Amino acid sequence: MKVSRVERRVIFAETDAMQVVYYGNYLKYFEVGRAEFFRQFDLPFTHYIEKGLYLAVTDVAVKYHRPARYDDLLLIETRLTHVGRATLNLGYVLYNQDTRQKLVTGTTGHAVLDEKGSVRRFEPDFAERMHALVTPPDSSDRPRSRIHAHTPTRRQ
């Protein structure tokens, strides 16, 4: 199984008044996992940034199982779950490293964009290397709800 694992300690600035991790900070932990995944499997996105290409987040889903707290040592597991011509999906599971309790599961969808915001395809060799790393997500780790940016509509 092609899974990246990285530890990250919760710092005080990431918590609320009750010393519980603020819910939005889990997306930062996903980003830590994502960066380490590509680094550990020798697919650094610095290669793309040098060419003026970026991996934009297109959607996010998060399921909160248990809270992380100040000074907890987190284990962030990241896996690549899908690769398309210009898109990819990653799955994440965050654990409390000491208790082994599952804290959060989530997914992110991404698209490759150029500096003008136009969608670009992955280079063939890069896509081939990523396809070799795809691991389908465990169904128990899939979040059931999605967070999408939208403009509220007004009913009349």
List the helices and strands and how they pair.
Blueprint lengths: L2 E7 L15 H16 L5 H4 L3 E12 L8 E11 L3 E10 L5 E13 L9 H8 L25
Antiparallel strand pairs: 1-3, 2-5, 3-4, 4-5
Summed over residues and divided by their number, the pLDDT gives a mean of: 89
Low-confidence stretches: 144-156
Please state the overall shape, judged from the principal axes of the Cα atoms. globular
Task: Give, in spatial order, the strands making up the sheet with the most strands.
Answer: 1-3-4-5-2
| CATH class membership | Alpha Beta
Percentage of β-strand residues: 25-35%
Task: For the record, give the distance between the C-alpha atoms at the N and C termini, rounded to a whole number.
Answer: 52 Å
What does this structure look like?
The structure is a single chain. The protein has a single domain (3-141), classed as Thiol Ester Dehydrase, Chain A (Roll). It has three helices and five strands, in the order E-H-H-E-E-E-E-H. The chain has helices at 25-40, 46-49, 124-131; strands at residues 3-9, 53-64, 73-83, 87-96, 102-114. It has a five-stranded antiparallel beta sheet with strand order 1-3-4-5-2. A hairpin with a 3-residue loop joins strand 3 and strand 4 (87-96). The chain starts with a strand and ends in a 25-residue tail after the last helix. Residues 144-156 have low confidence and may be disordered.
